[in-house]
Write a structure and sequence with these properties.
This protein is mainly alpha-helical. The model has no long low-confidence stretch (mean pLDDT 87). The protein has four helices and no strands. α2 packs antiparallel against α3, α2 runs parallel beside α4 and α3 runs antiparallel to α4. It is 81% helix and 0% strand.
Length: 98
């Protein structure tokens, strides 16, 4: 038999995924600003932000996490950075082959 404090304690342990997703998303955005190699460096934390954000959202839907905002923002930042990397890649290909 579990009580409410045990459930709250388990939910608090799962809330670390959202802040990690947000941190990875912000880090990816900062790395994207580095000239020449920034898009290569930013890809890894952007994928991590997207994956951690998805995990945080799934954990919230299953009731194992109480907060969803940070996970969602991290996933959105990761997706935006990956989109920007794609745009920069296509632009560099178009410039190389006129």
């Amino acid at each position: 038999m579990t009580n409410d404090s045990d459930d709250a304690e388990r939910a608090d342990r799962g809330d670390a995924v959202g802040p990690l997703a947000l941190a990875c998303g912000v880090l990816a955005g900062v790395f994207l600003l580095i000239p020449v190699i920034g898009d290569l460096i930013a890809a890894t934390p952007a994928v991590a932000a997207l994956a951690l954000g998805a995990v945080g959202i799934i954990r919230h839907e299953r009731g194992r996490s109480r907060r969803i905002a940070l996970a969602a923002i991290g996933a959105i930042l990761g997706a935006l950075v990956l989109g920007a990397i794609g745009i920069l890649f296509v632009a560099s290909l178009a410039q190389a082959h006129p």
